[in-house]
What does this fold into?
Amino acid sequence: MTTASDKDRVWIFDTTLRDGEQSPGATMTHDEKLEIAGLLDDMGVDIIEAGFPIASEGDFRAVSEIAERSKNSVICGLARANFKDIDRCAEAVRHAAQPRIHTFIGTSELHRAIPNLTMDEMADKIHETVTHARNLVDNVQWSPMDATRTEWDYLCRVVEIAIKAGASTINIPDTVGYTAPAESADLIKRLIETVPGADEVIFATHCHNDLGMATANSLAAVAGGARQIECTINGLGERAGNTALEEVVMALKVRNDIMPWHTKIDTQKIMHISRRVATVAGFPVQYNKAIVGKNAFAHESGIHQDGMLKNKETFEIMRPEDVGLSGTALPLGKHSGRAALRDKLDQLGFEIGDNQLKDLFVRFKDLADRKKEVFDDDIIALMRAGEDADDHLQLVSMKVVCGTGGQAESILEMEVDGADVSAVENGDGPVDATFKAIRKIYPNSARLQLYQVHAVTEGTDAQATVSVRLEEDGIITTGESADTDTVVASARAYINALNRLIIRRGKMGEGADAREISYKDLA
Ligand code: KIV
Ligand code: ZN
It folds into this structure.
């Protein structure tokens, strides 16, 4: 159980699997959630918020299994302020060596209006629900949602009630990303000074990034006395996301001179988990994202390169190795063998079995035949592209003919549940024609929400990574693929998203993964 004993220790609470997964399109499969939880546990995350057990059977199963498997981390589930949610949550986390229930209610005027409770009625509800949770587990966290817009006196009153009812962690969420750093520090400091019993509990900060201040607000809250930061890998989360774990952890490490607090995160595991979360959630990391962006350690301009060669510290405030980037980026080529590929994968933090290596090696050779040098990013893209969901639909062959007026014709052959089907379609450009041909072969009403192309490396022979996000009846799925041919990558990404949609539809049919409740439904 977490205690307030080490005054300079900051507890890292990761909510990638709960707040992060709520991000539209970021849905992960059961196995992906277990894998990410394993990586979080392994990298030293103190508390993993594994899901919202009442939301769906899928969430419940994920939280339960993560609870059973976790070795070091506290496993936490989210519950609204009612007995049914809390009981379900307790049932899900009960096998964890260290279970925690996180229960919350919106306390600002706007949020009180949703369940239509008076201040007094809400105060009673908080007392009852925290007491109930505390009777089920020792470790209870309580959050007044939209705390940063809650009236000061009322906030103090409800925090005191939750502490008296047995909560050992009080989380202060900036739910809408409204606060600024000075306010964030001040709010925590004043709460600790004002609320009776505040020195007996840990204060947590949970910031959203709507104004791009989540990291600054979280660090300011720590300066104000908070000792738990709630965050996600790559800053995944609702709207503009949550505080990014890698940013707060590295800021505390690099600027320990002015922020004398520490975490127990193994920072060398950051890059690998960042890449895995980007892949499984289908959310590519912005190139210039702090710490984990592709350009975060790249030095392009001549003056920067010259400075770096003379003394790395000229332009580098942390070493790439500290976040798990391999120092060397020697490219592979068509003469590289399986051992060299395995070695590169090890350096990049991927552990793969012999069969997966065999399959990857075939695709690597195919790429190396088309591309002079195969860079680290090419290998990562190959790994990502190889993780297709169970394939109901497969691309067999394609040929695209482009005319001068922008019109194109796509001749496509696919396998649909084992049967060969082909189609020819015209469209405005090769991608449009190809997507139309796919829709002709596999008619569906999925709406294309996002189509994104990135060049993985430099040069005209670079691989393109394509992300496609589809939406059908509220189900959102993302597909990704990479190829030196952008149109082939686009076709594969679209088919990959459709495959995921088919799987999700099947599960919804069985009632297995339908999310009936969002954490915003406060009734
Ligand atoms: O942003 C928020 O307020 C939340 C709560 C459930 C803690 O995610
Ligand atoms: Zn949140």
The longest strand covers residues 393-402. The pocket of 3-methyl-2-oxobutanoic acid (ligand 1) is lined by residues 19, 104, 143, 145, 171, 173, 175, 206, 208, 519 (CB under 6 Å). The longest helix spans residues 486-509. The radius of gyration is 25 Å.
